[in-house]
Design goal:
Elements: H1 2-28, E1 32-33, E2 45-46, H2 49-64, H3 73-92, H4 97-113, H5 133-154, H6 160-178, H7 182-202, H8 211-232, H9 245-252, H10 254-269, H11 282-288, H12 293-313, H13 319-341
Antiparallel strand pairs: 1-2
Helix pairs in contact: 1-2, 1-7, 2-3, 2-7, 2-8, 3-4, 3-8, 4-5, 5-8, 5-10, 6-7, 6-8, 6-12, 7-8, 9-12, 9-13, 11-13
């Protein structure tokens, strides 16, 4: 228990103290994100907040995680370092999407093959429980890459990625604590601590953005936590064991996952590449309704909390039906938002 609390405090303090220096260096070296057609800010803002998140998180995890009972941690740290280097390079000198994907795939491969962060059961989804490696390996790689990039894609307004990261990591971390998975709880709350500190400087008016460094690290850590969450419920004999675990995990990560699915579907339907950058995310619809960044973030966090409550209370209906319900409800809500955000025609 004390290790978990101390991991949060350590990550918070280091990130909180590091970011002012990072802001000064970024401004001196002109490492600034200038306003553009797809941006939601009007002034140049430093983009290296992910350095502070990485520093607080990695120090706290290394210091407080019990290596003796978590031998795979060295491989997890290796994967995080790879993602950090990719993000930092892209924040300073933009990289092609192909090169970033190759680096992400390398980190994901280390997690699957060396850290054993791998989906081996579908918990009855589509009638399947245990799945062979020929299915488990590509499914795990796809899941990790999807979560990594989903966090990156929602990082478009102040506070959103950080708030989603805090909510999801704290939710999963609490479950790990309840089931005595202290090593994973430490990782979860170390991420939460660093993100709480980061939000102090990312709140409107933002003094710094997390950039790809921060969003990719958050995505990778959440992928590790989500897959571990699904795996550890496999055959778990514990009062806090959950049913319909794949659906519960999707409900916890509903904002980034559904926004990514929605954005990709729209782009493909319009005959474009799903990776074409466009201003068609859910947070953009909220901004079009004249909500501020913080108001839009608040709305999405409340919605995320409601989905977490929904999947927790309806876990008994089965993964297939619960996933279908979650996707249907998310589609209905986003469709209502789309029409509500459209400019009203003035009748003459």
């Amino acid at each position: 228990m004390f290790d978990i609390i101390l991991s949060f405090i350590t990550a918070f303090m280091l990130t909180y103290l590091a970011i002012p220096s990072i802001i000064n260096v970024a401004r001196l070296k002109n490492l600034i994100d200038e306003p553009g057609d797809r941006t939601s800010h009007n002034l140049g803002v430093p983009t290296l907040g992910g350095l502070g998140i990485f520093a607080g998180f990695i120090f706290s995890v290394t210091f407080w995680t019990p290596f003796v009972v978590f031998g795979e941690l060295q491989y997890i740290l290796c994967a995080i370092v790879i993602i950090f280097l990719i993000g930092a390079k892209d924040d300073i000198v933009p990289m092609s999407a192909r090169k970033k994907l190759i680096g992400q795939l390398l980190a994901s491969t280390i997690l699957v093959f060396k850290a054993n962060v791998k989906l081996t059961s579908l918990h009855g989804l589509f009638g399947y429980t245990d799945i062979p490696d020929i299915v488990a390996i590509p499914l795990s790689l796809f899941s990790i890459l999807t979560i990594i990039n989903s966090i990156n894609l929602i990082d478009g307004i102040n506070g959103l990625s950080g708030s989603v990261g805090i909510l999801t990591s704290a939710t999963l971390g609490y479950w790990f604590f309840q089931t005595n998975q202290i090593q994973l709880a430490v990782i979860a709350f170390a991420l939460s601590g660093s993100l709480v500190a980061f939000l102090k400087y990312n709140w409107t008016p933002a003094k710094i953005f997390m950039g790809d460094t921060g969003s990719l690290i958050i995505g990778l850590v959440l992928a590790i936590l989500a897959i571990s969450f699904i795996e550890m419920n496999k055959g778990l004999d514990h009062p806090h064991a959950l049913k319909s675990v794949p659906a519960v995990a999707i409900g916890i990560l509903i904002i980034p996952l559904f926004d990514t699915l929605r954005a990709f579907t729209i782009r493909i339907a319009n005959g474009k590449s799903p990776f074409t950058p466009e201003r068609n995310h859910i947070h953009h619809l909220l901004l079009d309704m004249n909500l501020s960044h913080i108001q839009a973030t608040g709305v999405l966090i409340v919605v995320n909390i409601l989905f977490i409550a929904l999947v927790y209370n309806l876990q008994h209906i089965g993964s297939f039906y619960l996933i279908s319900l979650v996707l249907l409800l998310a589609t209905v809500l986003s469709t209502i938002l789309y029409f509500a955000s459209r400019p009203k025609k003035v009748l003459s």
